[in-house]
């Protein structure tokens, strides 16, 4: 049964983008349109396309949070020599064939 779509409560000083901001960064390391890949939150269990995620680009790296409960799901860090995609425990990213 699909989870009704609601954004997590944000504080007035939160500065986040939607998951479409990830398209350029992730297209270099994931196949297809990365914003369409579904990501399962380890905290609330909701599954949504990355396009709906809350993206905080001004953290150490880029932090990707669940749009339902605001739990951290992924962190993307780019260094001069590599790109690091870090998953929190039990986060699942579905990559279709």
Structure explained in plain terms:
- By secondary structure, the chain is mainly β.
- 4% of the residues lie in helices and 35% in strands.
- The strands form 2 sheets. Strands 1-4-5-6-7 form a 5-stranded antiparallel sheet, with no helix packed on it. Strands 3-2-8 form a 3-stranded antiparallel sheet, with no helix packed on it.
- The radius of gyration is 13 Å and the shape is globular.
Comma- or semicolon-separated keywords:
three-stranded antiparallel beta sheet; five-stranded antiparallel beta sheet; globular; 1 helix; 97 residues; mainly beta
> Within the largest sheet, what's the order of strands?
1-4-5-6-7
Indicate the multimeric state.
Answer: single chain
**Which structural class matches the secondary elements?**
mainly beta
Q: What's the mean pLDDT score?
A: 83
Total strand segments = 8
What portion of the residues fall into strands of 2 or more residues? 35-45%
Helical content (DSSP H or I, runs of 4+): under 10%
What is the distance, rounded to the nearest whole angstrom, between the alpha carbons of the first and last residues? 24 Å
């Amino acid at each position: 049964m699909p989870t009704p779509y609601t954004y997590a409560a944000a504080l007035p000083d939160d500065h986040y983008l939607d998951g479409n901001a990830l398209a350029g960064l992730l297209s270099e390391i994931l196949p297809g349109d990365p914003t369409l890949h579904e990501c399962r939150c380890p905290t609330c269990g909701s599954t949504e396309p990355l396009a709906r995620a809350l993206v905080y680009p001004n953290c150490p790296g880029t932090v990707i949070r669940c749009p339902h409960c605001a739990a951290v799901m992924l962190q993307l860090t780019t260094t001069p020599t590599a790109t690091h995609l870090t998953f929190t425990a039990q986060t699942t990213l579905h990559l279709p064939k």
